[in-house]
């Protein structure tokens, strides 16, 4: 618990108030419907994908295990952020406990970086499948997926732990109104009466180290894939390969672009409404969770057939 001594009066922060879209209150009304629909789509699509991969023996392969991991991450991110945002929109339930706020902060930072890392591993999977197809069965094995999953969990889980710890140890001097819909690190830290330079530097360093390195490796993988695809002579091979990888790459590029736009809006915050980065932050936690199972799953022929077989069994 954080406390600040002011004369003989001890001020203790036990909870925070998430006070979002104060300058654009109508946004709450217009956002609530599409946000709830995106949330339902994300939860439904990812759940169907997980069930299909679990029940279909033909999908018990490394690539689909990675898809399962991505779906699990999407579900956790959505459940961590969107229900609370909708509770604020619909019932004005702005209060969030001190510990729940920093738990949400950790999960958001940890799981979004895990998602980025999973994209990187999946890009490597596609690189091996297209550039070294004969070596694919020996390189991309169940053991490889297990090691990759441990790496994803350990790297991002450990490196993002200091973010909420540094914020939770600050003195908040009785100020507890967060100008955001979620417990973003800097939105919370700026309430403190302490120096938050270390918080800012660590967030910046870890963010660019994790996401930046993933992005570089993803672009490298898809550049090599593009070179290999353009050398293919078989009729229709180029179109098929580009169709498979193109949609993946566009989604990853969109993921990165939204992050870049979010950073730029913070840099030029005097020229844009403070509600814009808040809006982007909220949407970023649900749009990709809804798109991922569609782009990575439904567009894959084997998964599409698996879902059809599953639906036939149900009906």
Write up what this structure looks like.
By secondary structure, the protein is mainly α. The protein has a single domain, classed as Rhopdopsin 7-helix transmembrane proteins, CATH 1.20.1070.10. The chain contains 12 helices and 5 strands. The chain has a 3-stranded mixed β-sheet. The protein has a two-stranded antiparallel sheet with strand order 1-2. The longest helix has 34 residues. The chain is globular, with a radius of gyration of 22 Å.
Strand order of the largest sheet: 4-3-5
Strand pairing plus helix content: what structural class?
mainly alpha
CATH level-two architecture: Up-down Bundle
Sheet of most strands: 3 strands, mixed
GO cellular component, one term: plasma membrane
GO biological process, one term: cellular response to lipid
Protein name: G-protein coupled receptors family 1 profile domain-containing protein
Membrane topology: Multi-pass membrane protein
């Amino acid at each position: 618990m954080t406390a600040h001594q002011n004369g003989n009066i001890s001020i203790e922060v036990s909870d925070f108030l998430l006070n979002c879209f104060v300058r654009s209150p109508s946004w709450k009304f217009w956002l609530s419907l599409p946000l709830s629909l995106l949330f339902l789509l994300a939860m439904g699509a990812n759940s169907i994908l997980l069930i299909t991969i679990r029940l279909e023996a033909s999908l018990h392969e490394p690539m689909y295990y990675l898809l399962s991991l991505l779906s699990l991450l999407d579900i956790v991110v959505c459940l961590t952020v969107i229900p609370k945002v909708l509770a604020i929109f619909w019932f004005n339930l702005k209060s969030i406990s001190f510990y729940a706020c920093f738990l949400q902060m950790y999960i958001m930072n940890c799981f979004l970086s895990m998602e980025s890392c999973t994209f990187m591993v999946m890009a490597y999977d596609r690189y091996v499948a297209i550039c070294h197809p004969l070596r694919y069965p020996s390189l991309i094995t169940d053991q490889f997926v297990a090691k990759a999953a441990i790496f994803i969990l350990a790297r991002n889980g450990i490196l993002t732990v200091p973010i909420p710890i540094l914020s939770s140890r600050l003195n908040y001097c009785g100020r507890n109104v967060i100008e955001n819909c979620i417990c973003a690190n800097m939105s919370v830290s700026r309430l403190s009466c302490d120096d938050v330079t270390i918080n800012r530097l660590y967030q910046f360093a870890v963010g660019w180290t994790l996401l930046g390195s993933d992005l570089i490796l993803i672009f490298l993988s898809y550049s090599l894939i593009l070179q290999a695809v353009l050398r293919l002579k078989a009729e229709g091979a180029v179109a098929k390969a580009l169709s498979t990888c193109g949609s993946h790459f566009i989604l990853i590029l969109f993921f990165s672009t939204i992050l870049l736009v979010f950073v730029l809006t913070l840099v030029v915050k005097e020229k844009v409404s403070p509600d814009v980065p808040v809006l982007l932050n909220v949407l970023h936690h649900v749009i990709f969770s809804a798109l991922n199972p569609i782009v990575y799953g439904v567009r894959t022929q084997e998964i599409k057939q698996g879902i059809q077989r599953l639906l036939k069994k149900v009906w």
